Amino acid sequence: MRTVFYRACIELTNHRFSSRLLKAFSRSKLSKRFVRSFSNTFGLNEKEMGRSIKEYEHLHDLFVRHLKPGSRPIDQSPNSIISPVDGVIAQAGKLESDTLFKVKGQTYSISEMLGSTEAAERYRNGVYIILYLSPSHYHRIHSPIDGEIERQWTLGSQSYPVNDWGLRFGKRPLSRNYRVVTELNVKGEHMVIVKVGAMNINTIELTHPFNTLKKGEEIGYFSFGSTVVLVAEDGLISIDTLVKSGEIKMGQKIGVCNE
Q1: Coil, helix or strand for 163?
Q2: Where is this site: Cleavage (non-hydrolytic) (predicted)?
Q3: Is it the case that residue 209 has pLDDT exceeding 50?
Q4: Partners of 91 in the β-ladder
């Protein structure tokens, strides 16, 4: 009963009109008065921000903030894979039954997440990592590894919560939400970076204009808290090296490529 009620509440509030209204407000001068209270409420680290808190013109400006140089050192260990975002590692491991994984009691298929069985085929028995960003986190997304972008595509339209309640009671939000998928060729093997939109402010912007990515380079940003799912081809990442839970900063090592 609780699941039905929660889903109904989400459906009633997550419409284009309310989403557009919230998005417009967050980018308006009217929202500037909430910048300080937002920072205090979510405990943002103002010392690492690229600008003084007084210089942010509206909430969106604060959401997509840059940080001071050196705030997120990139792990330079040979073959390391870094976290592409600040966030919490919600789960990591090997795909079950070739292409499935479970989060908060719900089963997801890579085919559904990537939009087709064809796209999912090369990731059978691969490794996945789920990173959740709350509103307090730095919202810019960086490349977890050196690679070449083979293709990018967009799926979904609306977005539902991806916090603990959303993952537990929503209708598979990681594979239904609006999402932007980037597929990388890493020395002949592959990894997808699935950027999953959050409820209401449903914006994912790509900022990298080239096909070649270096570890740690910025590739885009979220306009609000959300989720990144990394899925690597079987054999690319050593399963024993994965960081499987806990708070993580962009640039910190979360795994190691097999040699």
Answers
A1: coil
A2: 225-226
A3: yes
A4: 130
What distance in Å separates the CA atoms of residue 153 and residue 183, rounded to the nearest whole number?
Answer: 9
Q: Which H helix or E strand runs over 3?
A: helix 2-13
| Catalytic, out of 26, 60, 86, 137 | 86
Residue spans of the domains in the chain: they are 2-63, 80-256
Per the annotation, the verdict on 86 as an active-site residue is: yes
- Measured in degrees and rounded to the nearest 5, phi and psi for residue 237 equal -110, 135
To the query of whether residue 142 is one of the catalytic residues in this protein, the response is yes
Integer Cα distance of 94 and 99 in angstroms: 9
pLDDT of residue 174: 59
- Output 103 or 14, whichever has higher pLDDT: 103
Q: 167 phi and psi, to 5 degrees? A: -70, -30
Strands 204-206 and 212-213: unpaired
Among 249, 237, 244, 259, residue whose Cα is nearest residue 81: 237
Half-sphere exposure of 193 (CA within 13 A, CB side): 28
Q: Which of 31, 60, 142, 223 is catalytic?
A: 142
Query: What pLDDT is stored for residue 148 in this prediction?
Result: 97
Residue 88: HSE in the Cβ half-sphere, 13 Å Cα cutoff: 12
Closest of 74, 234, 216, 242 to residue 144, by C-alpha: 216
Tokens 């298929």: give the residue.
109
**For range 53-79, the mean pLDDT:** 94
Q: Which residue has the tokens 């990681």?
A: 174
